[in-house]
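User: Before I run my own analysis I want an independent prediction to cross-check against. Here's the chain; please return only the structure tokens and, at the end, one sentence I can use as a sanity check.
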Amino acid sequence: MRILPAGDHAVLVELEDLEEVLGYYAALSASPPAGVVDIVPAARTVLVTTDSDLDALTRALRAVQPVDRQQAGGELVEIPVVYDGEDLSDVAELLGCSVSELIKRHTCEDWTVAFCGFAPGFGYLTGAGHWDIPRRKTPRTKVPAGAVALAGEFSGIYPRESPGGWQLLGHTPLQIFDQNRDPAALLQPGRHVRFVSSQ
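Assistant: Structure tokens:
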């Protein structure tokens, strides 16, 4: 672990891998040091902002012990999905299984929101299973809001219409990002997600 200054009021904690980030973020969120204002996880780092002394924060962050992400107490969000995506058959073929097996695998996975990015409300969901799905060779110019997709080791839900190169499995009617809701993003880092087939 490396802790680097990030301006006058923040530090960047560099960790070994995404699994360590998930465990570190869970432990830090459960018991943040005094003065912590915000905690922002990413694929290999955690940014911590504070309104107090950076040296004291750095000492406190070195003492944080990551927890097993399965034991972390994140809220469970169930996402209803109609599995009718344009890439469903192609992804099943890539994984060497039937479409029904792919749907079962996706709905049985214990997904966790690792971090957010790309667009407001877009959560990168990681699971315990071995997902390694290549992005499309040619991204689509329009992916509809609510599209449920896979790319690399992640699953995600497009919060609004946008370009995208992820493989589309289906769609959800849920509004993933709503500026009039508090919090606006349904998917927050640390939350557990279960996809539920609504067909």
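Sanity check: Residues 2-68 form a domain with the Gyrase A; domain 2 fold (CATH 3.30.1360.40).
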